[in-house]
Specification:
The protein is α+β, with helices and mostly antiparallel strands. It is built from 1 helix and 7 strands, in the order E-E-E-E-E-E-E-H. A hairpin with a 4-residue loop joins strand 2 and strand 3.
């Protein structure tokens, strides 16, 4: 039996930071399935949401964040789904006015994550 080796590098363009607090996002899909999910990790390029209701790989979702950095609206596509665990998604669209808010959120999560990893 041939073993599959994982690459020693990440295919992501930006690393994800684990969310240690409670940050939630409202998701709506074209199938009419709306949900509120907790963010497990985030980067400038994507997000992993905790969700018991998986969406198929390739599904497109609209995400609406209401965070201290300001309103963030984004579109994302499901890259992988883990039943009972959540969804890994890649951002596909973000308005110019929401882009700085997302960057500020990612910086805050990363700083908080780094600070708590030293404890």
């Amino acid at each position: 039996m041939k073993s599959v080796q994982q690459p020693a590098y990440s295919r992501r363009r930006s690393s994800r930071s684990t969310v240690t607090g409670e940050i939630w996002v409202y998701c709506s899909s074209s199938e009419g399935r709306d949900d509120v999910s907790r963010i497990a990790n985030i980067s400038a390029g994507g997000i992993f949401l905790e969700s018991k209701t998986p969406h198929p790989v390739g599904s497109k979702l609209k995400l609406h964040f209401l965070v201290q950095e300001g309103q963030i609206r984004a579109e994302a596509v499901v890259q992988h789904a883990s039943s009972g665990r959540g969804l890994g998604m890649k951002f596909t669209a973000l308005t110019e006015e929401d882009r700085p808010h997302l960057a500020a959120l990612v910086r805050r999560v990363h700083a908080f994550s780094q600070e708590h990893s030293r404890i």
